[in-house]
């Protein structure tokens, strides 16, 4: 009999400094909304509403905490000194771009928090976690330490869970976590095929690479993660992302493909070698047939896929098929809306579509799939985790009250220098670790 397991979705709770700083070259939405005034309260409530809707349908939903921002220890490491207030003041004066980078709420996109390999795939049969170094962007490269602390505070039992430090933080080992990793399997408890998608081979200068925008993930990083997690050749496939897709604004593979169970939903331009990817998966997938759902450029031009974030959807099992949880923007782009209608007529694995409003996050290039980290857990593993982060009606109510009490409904780039903001954030986060039962994970708490 197959082992029973579930997929738990760990959504990032949007932090109180959610703002639009245009920090991500290659991410079209981030660049085009630079300097817009954000609404952190609305952003956090939109995220909570998504979690609530999915929890209400019976999915195992959990939350990962936001990070401490602005991050004063990083500013100190860069030479700003004095009291916390003076550090802020100096940074704001000397280099507002640095202040913006250390103030980003980007840890909300937990698809980039880590790569997770379920125990059915790994050599020691534990669930393995490696926080992503996110070395391609300075504002994201400062996330992995606290991410690692949060994951260790949740997945505490070492007989079930193994934690690795992030890979060396240099471009050769650029790693963006689960956004470039998807798992195909029969059931969540069965051995699966982990598909690692990379943008570039770092140690081979003649290999194909994008020319306009950076490739954030390297083959060498993906291979290192597979080694660390104890995945042998039966459980890992490495595929190069189409460089042309990166140059069209597909900065992570989850902007152009998503997999769940035996289904791979993808755009024809997602991979450099589409046929090779499918046959590599098929050769390894046990107990089920791969069900590819391929979207052609004639149906949905790649620009429309990027503008709508069609593929940055959550693909979830339902009793009679799969649900595609899409961002609202999908109904605003004509080709995509038409495609979604036709998808439901196809008699394929995807049998339902539901729209989620995560506009605040979308304006920084993060859709429903970016906001969640998937962790497949056997029943005994699920039991072993710290349950303070599991979503219930009670937690939803507490977090909603917490957001309403601590978050601003407007934040501009100038506000990032406000010393009151730093105080508000620390007060809020200190309370949050109590609500979630995480102990001390932030630098200001240590
Ligand atoms: N998976 C979605 C990640 C989106 C994220 N955006 C940002 O960091 C934009 C932040 C800003 O521009 O203020 C990124 O590009 O890594």
Structure summary:
By secondary structure, this protein is of the alpha/beta class.
Structure report:
The protein is an alpha/beta fold. The chain has one domain (about 5-70, about 105-445): Succinylarginine dihydrolase (L-arginine/glycine Amidinotransferase, Chain A, 5-stranded Propeller), CATH 3.75.10.20. Helices cover about 35% and strands about 20% of the residues. It has 16 helices and 15 strands. The chain has helices at about 30, 40-55, 70-75, 85-95, 95-100, 140, 145-155, 220-230, 245, 275-285, 300-310, 335-345, 360, 380-385, 395-405, 420-435, and strands at about 5-10, 60-65, 115, 125-130, 160-165, 180-185, 195-200, 235-240, 255-260, 265, 290-295, 315-320, 320-325, 350-355, 370-380. The strands form five sheets. Strands 2-1-15 form a three-stranded mixed β-sheet. Helix 2 packs antiparallel against helix 15 (about 395-405) and helix 15 packs antiparallel against helix 16. It starts with a strand and ends in a 10-residue tail after the last helix. N~2~-(3-carboxypropanoyl)-L-ornithine binds near residues 24, 104, 140 and 370. Pathway: Amino-acid degradation; L-arginine degradation via AST pathway; L-glutamate and succinate from L-arginine: step 2/5. Keywords: Arginine metabolism, Hydrolase. One of its GO terms (molecular function) is N-succinylarginine dihydrolase activity.
